[in-house]
Every structure is written in structure tokens, then in C-alpha cells.
Amino acid sequence: MFKRTRKPSPHTCAVLLALLDAYPRPTYGYDLSQTTTLKSGTLYPILQRLHERDLLSAEWQDSPHEGKPPRHIYTLSAAGLKLAREQREADAQAGAQARGR
Predict the structure, then answer these.
(1) How far is Cα 55 from Cα 75, in angstroms, rounded to an integer?
(2) What span, in angstroms and rounded, lies between the C-alpha atoms of 44 and 67?
(3) Coil, strand, or helix at residue 27?
(4) Cα separation of 24 and 61, whole Å?
(5) How far apart are CA 54 and CA 58, in angstroms?
(6) Which residues contact 5 (CB under 8 A, 6 or more apart)?
(7) The pLDDT value given to residue 93
(8) How far apart (Å, rounded) are the C-alpha atoms in residues 9 and 11?
(9) What is the pLDDT of residues 45-91, one digit of tens each?
(10) Of 57, 55, 52, whose CA–CA distance to 25 is shortest?
(11) Cβ atoms of residues 73 and 28 within 8 Å
(12) In whole angstroms, what is the distance from residue 94 CA to residue 74 CA?
């Protein structure tokens, strides 16, 4: 099981929160890049690390368009869902503290 040792990077948080917003719907990498505005060279290594840590599932899906290659679809795992919810809560608390100053 994944054991977090440090806070996720801002880019990783953006990906986790985008996946949380889509949950339980599977999400394509292209859609995540549009939502997070991350370039593919940043996004796909994050998705790969999250998958390696069992925080999301990644499955191939055939393209509905003839001649197009299959695409990965991504969905948060139970552990990823927990982490994303914790991150959303931490962000909300940080925002509340910043407004209270």
C-alpha cells in the first residue's frame, strides 16, 4: 500500500483534484491536460507515478474513431480517492486560514 512521505507537488495536486472532480467517471489524459493546463511532458509522468503507487487505475480503451489508436483512461483508486479528498480538505483549510488573516 502507498505510504505518503511528503506533500504532493502543486502539479500533482492539480491532477488529483481534476480526477476527483471527474470521479467516478474515467478521464482521458487529453481532458486532464485541458483541465489542469499541464503540458504532456509534465502530466504523463505524474499519471505514471500515481499509477505505479496504486493511486489510480489506467486502462486502454479503443478509440471510437476508426484508424485512431487506443487511449488510456484514468480513474482514482480507493487510495487515490482518499488522498485527493485529503488534499481538497487541506486546500480548503489553507484558504480559510488565508482569508482569516
Answers:
(1) 9
(2) 23
(3) strand
(4) 16
(5) 10
(6) none
(7) 81
(8) 5
(9) 999 999 999 999 999 998 888 998 889 999 999 999 999 999 999 88
(10) 57
(11) yes
(12) 28
CA dihedral 22, 28, 34, 37 (to 10 degrees): 90
Q: Read off the C-alpha cell for 9.
A: 507537488
Q: What angle do CA 53, 49, 67 make, to 5 degrees?
A: 115
The x, y and z cell numbers of residue 21, run together, are 472532480
**3-state SS, residue 95:** helix
8: Cα within 13 Å, side-chain hemisphere: 25
Instruction: Report residue 16 as a C-alpha cell.
Output: 488529483
pTM, rounded to two decimals? 0.83
Cell representation of residue 51: 499509477
CA distances from 65 to 59, 61, 69 (A): 18, 12, 9
Whether the Cβ atoms of residue 46 and residue 11 lie closer than 8 Å to each other? yes
DSSP state of 18: H
